[in-house]
Amino acid sequence: MFEQVMEEIRKFNRIIIHRHKNPDGDAIGSQVGLKHILKATFPEKEIFAVGDDARHYSFMDDSVMDAVPDEAYHGALAFVLDTSAKHLISDERYTMADKTIRIDHHIFCEKICDIEITDTSCESCCSLITELAMESGLIVNDLAAKSLYTGMVTDSGRFRYDSTNAATFRHAAFLMERSFDTNEIYRNLYADDFERIQLKAQFILNIRFTPKKVAYIYTPLEKVRELNVDTFTISRGMVGAMADIKNVDIWVNFTETEEGVLCELRSSRYNINPIAVKYGGGGHAKASGATVKNKEAAMSMLKDLELLIGE
User: Fold this and answer.
1) Can you tell me the distance from the alpha carbon of 9 to that of 76, in angstroms, rounded to the nearest whole number?
2) Is the distance from CB of 151 to CB of 126 less than 8 angstroms?
3) Would you say 56 and 233 are in contact if contact means Cβ atoms under 8 Å apart?
4) Model-level pTM?
5) Nearest CA to 116 among 127, 126, 106?
6) 24 and 83 in contact (C-beta within 8 Å)?
7) Which residues pair with residue 217 across a beta bridge?
8) Less crowded by CB within 10 Å, the N or C end of the chain?
9) In the sheet that 260-267 helps form, which strands lie side by side, from edge to edge?
10) How far is CA 44 from CA 41, 80, 163, in A?
């Protein structure tokens, strides 16, 4: 699957790796993992990773992005990882590169790069990067393995989501042959300070239900400002508060921002991706996101989720 990718990697002496904005563990993990795989395998090449701040995932090794001038893209190969649509890419300068490659596991929305590798059967982009290394005989050092494993854990929900399959565990086993501390990864990912637990309790108390048991939380802009935490913590960070409610198969977290309402859609049973796409978003069959203009649009999305259950 990766023959053409390896052909391009061998051609270029400078490689710049991009991923999506507001990164999660899979975006940072695949980006840092690929960076250090290529640095270990091709020490003569210049390898960079670019994008916005890692935020919640800044605990991950080498998650501080490189400063790359515009001229570095001339004569370079650019990767775009874990990204389904152009407007989601962090740092639009990837288009300045001589050649571009996208590796992704989301449902395909649009062509982004010269070479496209998309496999929705993978639970994470990190799993795809691991497959690239295994298939092509690339060197996976300890730092790369730790980064990739972290991304696999986050996007598979600690190997709970139904996107997890036999290949997931083959890739995880391959990575665990290297040396890294899984307990350290889990502590950083899941240990909360008391203030965050109190914050989560506030959101749990604000869970509401539609007549067909779609669970949702709606946080208005004034409340977001009052809480004084970043929008990622509220939006993606709190959608999981509704994940294990009995008889709830669809849940959505709405968060107002200056730019619009962030919508995090999740389901344990239904394909909610077409609804996310309808409202300008994308993602996976059971985990997608979108940004809509206002509360009216958000409530319209909620009605569409109700209709999905009716079907």
Assistant:
1) 10
2) yes
3) yes
4) 0.83
5) 106
6) no
7) 253
8) C
9) 208-209, 215-219, 250-257, 260-267, 287-292, 282-283
10) 9, 22, 37
Residue 9, SS3 per DSSP: helix
Structure tokens at 184: 């350290």
Here the tokens at position 46 are 């210049």
Q: How far apart are CA 126 and CA 218, in angstroms?
A: 32
Token pair listed for 248: 């709830």
| Token representation of residue 189 | 């990912």
Q: Given 3-state DSSP classes, what are the helix, strand and coil percentages for the chain, each rounded to the nearest 5?
A: 45, 20, 35
Contact (Cβ atoms closer than 8 angstroms) between residue 157 and residue 123? no
Per-residue model confidence as pLDDT tens for the chain (311 residues): 899 999 999 999 999 999 999 899 999 999 999 999 999 999 999 999 999 999 889 999 999 999 999 999 999 999 999 999 999 999 999 999 999 999 999 988 899 999 999 999 999 999 999 999 999 999 999 999 999 999 999 999 899 888 899 999 999 999 999 999 999 999 999 887 888 899 999 999 999 999 999 999 999 999 999 998 988 889 988 999 999 999 999 999 999 999 999 999 999 999 999 999 999 998 888 999 999 999 999 999 999 999 998 75
3-state secondary structure of 122: coil
Please state, in angstroms and rounded to a whole number, the distance separating the CA atoms of residues 176 and 173. 5
- The backbone torsions φ and ψ at residue 157, rounded to the nearest 5 degrees and listed phi first, read 60, 50
